[in-house]
Amino acid sequence: MSNFDFIPSTWANIANTPREAEQHLFAAPLYSAMLCRKSLEQWIRWMYEYDEDLELPYDNNLNALLYAPGFKDLVTSSQLERINLIRKVGNNAVHANVKIKAEEVLHVLQLLHGFIGWVCRFYDLKKVIVPPFDESLIPTMAGKDKSKADLKALEAAYLNQQEKLIKAEEELANVKAAKEQNATITLIPSDPNEALTRKMYVDTLLREAGWDPYAENVWEYPVKDCMPQANGNNGDGYVDYVLWGDDGKPLAIVEAKKTKHDPTIGQHQGKCYADCLQKSFGQRPVIYYSNGYKIWMWDDTEYPPRTVHGYYTKDELQGLIQRRIYKKPLGEQVINANITDRYYQKEAIRKVSETLESHRREALLVMATGTGKTRVAASIVDFLSKAGWIKRVLFLADRNALIHQAKTNFNDYLPHLPAVDLTKDKEDESSRIVFSTY
User: Fold this and answer.
1) Which residue of 18, 30, 92, 270 could cross-link 255, Cys pair, CB 3.0 to 4.6 Å?
2) 3-state percent helix, strand, coil for the chain, nearest multiple of 5
3) pLDDT in the model for residue 414
4) What does residue 219 show for φ and ψ, rounded to 5 degrees?
5) Smallest Cα–Cα separation from 213: which of 200, 195, 194, 197?
């Protein structure tokens, strides 16, 4: 017996993958996680094949399929994030050098069960009954997991041998009729464990950035006598996550709040934790606060909070904190007259530097043809680089000809900064300036 025995014969050709994931969950959790991701992709691609309202995007990898406008219209935002967690954990199982616990894969399998049940109820004219997930049906025997090389080979074989589903007019008509019939009665599957989903989302994104969420002193790090209490005294607390540098000092903290809450609720608490750690270690960490799905990053010594898609790596956080110490005041820096010598060019560069020193992250210059936009851009790069404000630069334009011309000019203006054109060559880690089209 299997938790996926409810799947109707309509989907017989893609029903075995979730059952196989279930069979290997405790014996081979990495392999099971990969199979969950593979199963998710099979069901998503079935939807794109048979639902005439879904149009394949230009880039049809699984991430693009999930976030295409038509698919996002079909599901709720919370359901989308839950099934995206299946994708992320499966990717980590194959590509990241991390360990994933069987308990985490069990949760992913439950999310997959809910999604497949929703698809079956949504696209079948009969009323498909989806029983609650039963953990007792999962084999508990121990065994040896697949190696990373094995998993990559299996994934490659799946991608290479994947056959397109054959369209049948009768089936398409049934799918359309079922969708119209079930649009108002089909229930979105609930989250079996909202707190675990939230934690797994944070853990998965931390792993993608090279962090081990279960390493020593990372999860629920205790702080003493520095958290404000209602009675006016200070009390103890636990930081959800602390990300440490090689020197034993905190680089960042992560404060996780419930998914239903706005992540900004954790902003003040994160600041208090940062104050505690700065007092103990003499270094102020970067503050992250999240509800699992949305992440805010706050380097409160430099900039206001901003939303980000993930967490910084150890090297990136170390570089950010070192920049606080070593960057120089822009008002004291000299503009290179060999690159820009016209008064309005120098004024533009000074206005940019004033904007950045006022703790803003963006500046926009609008310049007429022939006034030296490329020279000003190169001069700003030179200016900020010598002041220690930047290390790497991305230069974007809308046409290849503009990219090639700009790179040639930058090589003349800034010969000491290695550059690469991504429209022609692969990126080199030593490159300081990267040119590309949008």
Assistant:
1) 270
2) 50, 10, 40
3) 94
4) -90, 125
5) 200
